[in-house]
Fold:
Amino acid sequence: MIQSLLIANRGEIAVRVARTAREMGIEPVGVYAEAEADAAHIGQMDRAMSLGSGSPLETYLSIPKLLAAAHGAGAQAVHPGYGFLSESAEFACAVSEAGLIWIGPPPAAIEEMGDKVRARRRMREAGVPVVPGSNESAQSDEALAAQAVEIGFPVLVKASAGGGGKGMSRVDSAQDLPAALSEARRVARAAFGSDRVYLERFFERPRHVEFQIFGDRSGNVAHLFERECSVQRRHQKIVEETPSLALDPALRGKMGLAAVEAARAVGYVGAGTVEFLLDEQGRFYFLEMNTRLQVEHPVTEETLGLDLVRAQIEVAQGVLLPEAWRRGSLAPRGHAIELRLYAEDPVSFLPRTGRLLAWEEPSGPGVRVDAGVQEGSTIGLDYDPLLAKLVVSAPDRPAAIARARRALAEWVVLGVETNAPLLDVVLASEEFASGRYATDLVSRLPLAAAAPIPDAVWIAAALELSHGSPRGGEAPRSLEPWDETSGWRPGS
Structure:
């Protein structure tokens, strides 16, 4: 049984895993790059191991350093979180070969589903509908150009080993394809170490719906219903919810069955997500499979009353999936929405940096914040700009939207610009409220309403918060009641 767990990640997912580990009586061991030795996630660990100095490639992406940290801490298992090496078959193999328990799917499943072109072929073989696109052998510009004509413009150019929208672009004509292929290969090579690309049919107004799946070592596979992920900017999700208003019971059943068959086809174990595109006629197509825990897993937890990280750890120790999961007798309750708070300009989506001068999280019934920062945290450009996730749950969708807007308005963040104004514009839009939105929602919104607050306002607020500079020769007034010479005093 696992007594000590190395969490090979940082930020909010490291905090999230640590909390569940502690509840299970497992010692959470964190890792950190020297430049962020005071990072928020370190304070949630029982122990923390340094990965030395250097870039993410030299720290959080260094397999030898992570294994050395695990052995140095005496950990029995490694949880990769998401991002970094969470979908690295090489890391999964190295962990197992080092005599440690890997909290994730088998390396073979990671490898098979990590290459999007191979995954598409495997899904076709398993009878799962796949988005029309190029075949595995087409890699030259000439071969891909011929395939594009066959698929029909517009098409999407995508990185075979990619994710998060990196290397993805829409191409509307044959003459634009060579430049798009060249740029996609360049980005893919830098981001994923592989310049293989492929083409997919471009759908004008699709919905992005994914299913949470789980497998155990005895071959049982179940799905834990869907999440709607259609609110995106630059092909990356910013708002997720469950249940999806796009699905009726019959369609939900078909898509859930397809997700389970996709997982069974690769001998899947642990938590994963099968992602689908849903067209305007209600036809669904396999998009990709993420062989890890998703950023948006909390909405599933809130509607089902589950702890998916606990389930990951239990499955890795050989525990069978709960009987209710295997029977398909779980029933979601209410509605849940997740908002991703990024350090970025809410209109241009460019990342922002700075120091968090104030950080006050919202609270109240049905409000959960998974954060990887705290007041005083420095936000740089070395890591993903995700600061935290706001997750709300309520008896129904209108109540969940109202709760999300209330909680978002209560969130105090000073010192770093965020996408909070954009998130509120999404929640306030009639299109989102109707539930009949698609992946182009953000591009259709009046983003001027999300225009960033002028820097002068932030500076003035920050100065006021820090008690400002002396005015007229007077020292700034303390807000601490213990410093008062009259009025409230202890024992008075």
